[in-house]
């Protein structure tokens, strides 16, 4: 039976049991599922279930992590940040043949275990953790070490530095971010650098390069499953900025 490169994330939310948050969180997750389907042209399996959980199965080793990254970038419920158990590997079915409610596969277990591991780490947890099959233990160690460093840099950002990074990650233009925030490009550049924006982008880009390289070695004839995924996500979010960015949130003494 032919094998296919795939990736999975299971996402949970911190403090999701807080009183009065249930309906708001549920509506927000439903909106996120709708966005993911739009970003990917419905070429992934994604479902909101178990109250505060989203599960995603996608073709390609890097796809799940790429989508998780952008969810974390635009997330605007600061008291309820998401965290992701992520895995990648090989499956023997095409996505259209999978029933997400009944499908049993070792990769689902790995993503679940990664998610549960993060849950036990408490409020200072990393947002992402990879669990992958045992013959890639060294890769898992290095990737999760990078993600711990990524989280340390995020934790050190001020709220304004987080906002600058989010806008820059979506628009990829210093002048555009400056225009949105009503500040000079030099001010935006300063906050991007002080907020370790360059290092955060490097970690994300390098992890995607590694994932695509691993896929290429296992499947020499394969290509990134959704080659224009990042472009699709950025274009959608640029066109719908009011849905994830509030000018009130962007105000402050930059």
TrEMBL record:
The organism's place on the tree of life at top rank: Bacteria
Name of this protein: Uncharacterized protein
């Amino acid at each position: 039976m032919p094998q296919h490169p795939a990736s999975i994330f299971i996402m949970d939310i911190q403090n999701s049991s807080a009183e009065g948050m249930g309906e708001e969180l549920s509506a927000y997750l439903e909106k996120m599922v709708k966005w993911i389907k739009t970003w990917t042209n419905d070429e992934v399996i994604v479902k909101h279930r178990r109250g505060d959980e989203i599960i995603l199965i996608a073709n390609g080793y890097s796809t799940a992590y790429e989508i998780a990254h952008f969810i974390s970038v635009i997330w605007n419920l600061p008291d309820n940040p998401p965290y992701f158990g992520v895995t990648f590997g090989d499956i023997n079915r095409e996505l259209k043949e999978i029933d997400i409610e009944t499908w049993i596969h070792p990769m689902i277990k790995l993503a679940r275990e990664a998610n549960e591991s993060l849950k036990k780490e408490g409020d200072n947890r990393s947002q992402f953790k990879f669990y992958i099959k045992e013959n890639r233990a060294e890769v898992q160690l290095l990737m999760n070490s990078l993600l711990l460093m990524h989280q340390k840099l995020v934790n050190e950002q001020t709220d304004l530095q987080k906002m600058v990074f989010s806008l820059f990650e979506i628009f990829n233009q210093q002048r555009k971010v400056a225009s949105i925030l009503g500040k000079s490009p030099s001010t935006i550049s300063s906050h991007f650098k002080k907020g370790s924006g360059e290092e955060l982008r490097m970690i994300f880009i390098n992890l995607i390069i590694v994932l695509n390289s691993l896929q290429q070695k296992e499947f020499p004839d394969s290509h990134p499953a959704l080659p224009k995924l990042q472009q699709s996500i950025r274009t959608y979010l640029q066109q719908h900025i009011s849905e994830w960015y509030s000018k009130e949130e962007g105000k402050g003494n930059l």
